Amino acid sequence: MITFKQLEALYWIVEMRSFELAATKLNMTQSAISKRVQELEMALDIEIFDRAKRNARLTEKGTELYQYAADLLGQRDVMLERVSAKRVLVRRFRLGVTELTALTWLPGLIESMRDAYPLVTIEPSVELSTELFKKLEADQLDLIIVPDIFDDARFQSTPLQTVENVWMCSPDLYSGKDPIELQALGQFTVLTQGGSSGTGLIYDRWFSQHDVRFNRAIVSNYLVAQVGLTLSGLGISYLPKECMSFLIDQGQLSIINTTTRLPLIRYSAVHRVDRVLGLTAEVSKLAERLCNFKQLHLLKHL
To answer: Which helix (H) or strand (E) holds 30?
Structure first.
């Protein structure tokens, strides 16, 4: 008789491209996971892996079986998550967010997840957008919340709120009130986010399209560092307007108005299309309802 454990062994060997890595993920020995594959082969009287190859390469029948296994495992998980009461659902949920989300509405999202799924273990990861996407691609995260820059048919995105960024600086550096041309920003040292940041990628492309060039630039991938450098008067920077309003009200930062405004940054909740499970869909809905980049939970206390 074929079991889900045998199908899981096959599935993760293919996904991880290694018997050893699959065994580690399933908390098994390599010999135990190999035995499950052998049991499948005996039950179906087929060869699943081409043993003439060094890597875990599927045979034609093995490929067909893997596709069935992926579908069955997915349907099993959906059934368990939809039929089981939310308050008895036990599993872990790996959530990846950027720094801005972590500093603003992430505490509210985690609180709502705990209320709805008290036995679910939430494993948050706060990293740059490109790193989060790589981990989602490698199935190391279940859902990521990032700027909407990844256009890939393998992933499904749920649009969230937008973030308005404006140019800011220390009042000692510039105190003009009239709007200036984008090209005039070249007179300042510009503090930008790097290519590993989703916002940085979007704005780099936008600056190129608008023929905006900066003579002096300091690159930082991290929002807190960017705020600190701006407060120190080292240069001007684009920062989220609403959640930095308390620094403007305190007179620590001032806005540089430009004739052409920066584009809004749309955030999205992104997951793999082959991992459309009940819990992932529910968390996406929670994110859509709770997303709010206006209130800071940390920087106000620094």
So the answer is: helix 30-44
Q: Of 178, 193, 155, give the one whose Cα is nearest residue 271.
A: 155
8 Å CB contact between 11 and 66 = yes
pTM given for the model: 0.73
> Does an H or E element contain 223, and which?
helix 223-231
> How far is residue 26's CA from residue 28's CA, in Å, rounded to a whole number?
5
Overall size of the chain counted in residues: 302
- What is the 8-class DSSP label of residue 174? -
Predicted confidence (pLDDT) per residue in 82-101, tens digit: 666 566 565 788 999 999 99
pLDDT per position as a tens digit, 189-200: 999 988 889 999
Q: Report the C-alpha gap between 22 and 11 in whole angstroms.
A: 9
List the domains of the chain with CATH numbers.
4-83 (1.10.10.10), 86-160+266-301 (3.40.190.10), 165-263 (3.40.190.10)
List C-alpha distances in Å: 201 to 100, 138, 156, 205, 232: 15, 22, 20, 6, 25
